Amino acid sequence: MTKRIAVFPGSFDPVTQGHEAIILRALNVFDEIIVAVGVNIEKRYLFSVETRTKWIKQTFKDYPQVRVESYTGLTVDFCKKVGSKFIIRGLRTSADFEFERIAGQVNKKLSSDIETVFLLAAPEFTALNSSVVRDIVINGGNASIFVPEGVIIRPEDLEY
Ligand code: ADP
Fold first, then answer.
1. pTM above the 0.90 mark?
2. Mutate to test the pocket of ligand 1, among 22, 23, 102, 118 (most ligand atoms within 8 A of CB)
3. Cβ < 6 A, ligand 1 pocket
């Protein structure tokens, strides 16, 4: 059987326990997960792509089935490049659904052989997103309970 490779794209600015939980669950469905750290020239990130990538690699260092790469451009083009026919996205709320519906339907038009697969957020992670973590960090709070174990955010990691 051919290996089922899925791409989990996102900003991961920074990675949270919500992302970590989705990746761990996706490993039950796919043979390999490529976490694709987006670099979008129109977006301003709090953490550099190197730092965002480093934290995810560190989180999954014991999982050879999880690869972490950065990418620019269209997610469907990245999927083609790495030989993946699946995009994983997490769904927390109906707002996520509306956003993902558009992205998923557009991606389907762009590339009809790529499927977007949605995993529902676990209830304990529904309120968790990277912008909450960024807010805490920017205001000098301790965000460690929201990020994967071992991810230490230091003031010098901030880009602005
Ligand atoms: P993007 O800028 O592409 O939305 P994010 O890093 O914010 O990037 O999110 C990447 C993916 O992870 C998205 O599919 C998002 O819905 C999902 N996600 C983020 N936080 C959570 C969470 N707490 N629970 C489940 N899924 C999540």
1. yes
2. 22
3. 10-12, 16, 18-19, 22, 89-90, 92, 96, 121, 125, 128-130
User: Using CA atoms in the order 128, 134, 135, 137, what is the torsion angle rounded to 10 degrees?
Assistant: 120
Cβ–Cβ < 8 Å for 22, 59: no
Pocket test for ligand 1, best of 49, 89, 93 (most atoms within 8 A of CB): 89
- How would you classify residue 12: left for phi > 0, otherwise alpha for psi between -120 and 50, otherwise beta? left
Is the distance from CB of 56 to CB of 8 less than 8 angstroms?
no
CA distance 160 to 108: 36
- 96-111 pLDDT, tens digit each: 999 999 999 999 999 9
Higher pLDDT, 47 or 159: 47
Residue 60: burial class (beta carbons within 10 Å; 0-12, 13-18, 19+): buried
